[in-house]
Amino acid sequence: MKPGPALLLGVLLLASAAPLSAFPLRVLVEGPKSTLKIAVSAPAQLRQDNGGTVDLLPGQWFTVRRENSGVVQLPPEGLVLVGDRWYPESVQFRWLRGGLLAVNFVDSETYLRGVVPREMPSSYGDHALMAQAVAARTYALTSWVRRKHGPHYDLVDTVVDQVYGGFARYNPRTGKSTLLTHPRTDRAVAATRDQFLDYSKAQGFYRAEGIAGWVRYGEYSLPVPKGRMLSQKVSQMMAQAGWNYHDILAYWYKSHVYQIAFPG
């Protein structure tokens, strides 16, 4: 079955929205496996480590093996299908730990568009989503700075780090793709561009629950944090009660929000 050559137009349009500034990330999204099947949504090229090139066309499968590993370079609107997910920007295939790994090379703001709707419901309030975006950006920055996974990638795409779904999910039974980004979480990422917690104090940890209980404060009840960790469900309650994202983040992390601009 062809890999959805008539990919959702919305996916292609969203993929072309390049950010003004960001920092580069390498996210492990697949493997290790003996081979990996890939496809592209727009004409692209696999630049092989052996110096050769392979032209890739939409609607065609290509099998990456150890001998033809390399980097898929995509045009601005392009996506590459690895496993059942479509990824933006570029994907490197390299042999490591006895198999092929697929690593998505992606800037931080594009990465966050695939993270925030996977980590927090897009139906949550604007300021809860904005707090989530700042927390997730801070977590990505600390991982990037500290190189905690070693020299080959900065993050994995599971709950070990942050759940990253790329931009769309492919269904091999139907040949159709479903968009995984969302306009509301995209707006939260864009509205908080270049904003971080002080990562010397807070690394951006968060959990769905993440509280030790409640304490009375006059006529109100306030949550008791479990260290410097945001509770997503309680942050939604705060947003519904009128807290802005700066106040939500300050409550959980005891940190102000700082603006850090990276070269565009």
TrEMBL record:
The keyword rRNA-binding does not apply. Keywords: Signal. Residues 98-199 form the Sporulation stage II protein D amidase enhancer LytB N-terminal domain. InterPro entries: Bact_Sporulation_Assoc (IPR051922), SpoIID/LytB_N (IPR013693). Residues 1-22 form the signal peptide. PANTHER family: AMIDASE ENHANCER, N-ACETYLMURAMOYL-L-ALANINE AMIDASE-RELATED. This is SpoIID/LytB domain-containing protein. The lineage of its organism: Bacteria, Bacillati, Cyanobacteriota, Cyanophyceae, Gloeobacterales.
